[in-house]
Amino acid sequence: MTITEADRFEMHLELRKFLGDKVAETLMEHLPPSGWGDVARRSDIDHLRDQFADLKATTRGLAAGMWALGSLTTVGFIGLFTVIATKL
Predict the structure, then answer these.
(1) Is residue 87 scored above 70 in pLDDT?
(2) Helical H runs in the chain?
(3) Which residue from 30, 35, 37 is spatially nearest to 15, judged by alpha carbons?
(4) Residues 11, 34: Cα–Cα separation, whole Å
(5) Above 90 in pLDDT, residue 2?
């Protein structure tokens, strides 16, 4: 069931009748503005943190691999230029 703003307003009016203005206002302020389905749980945040940690580790591994590949390429070019220079 989707709760509309009209539903929330009606609930607020009823709460004011039974609890008074101040208590009803405080209670309404503690409710999420769009429904509980839009609120992240601790487990959601933990899952995202774990995925981010995995992504960070993968990125570090890729960076190390790219550095090694760049080094090997540089050594290869130096060797190639040395061979060409000695032939001239």
Answers:
(1) yes
(2) 5-19, 21-29, 42-87
(3) 30
(4) 15
(5) no
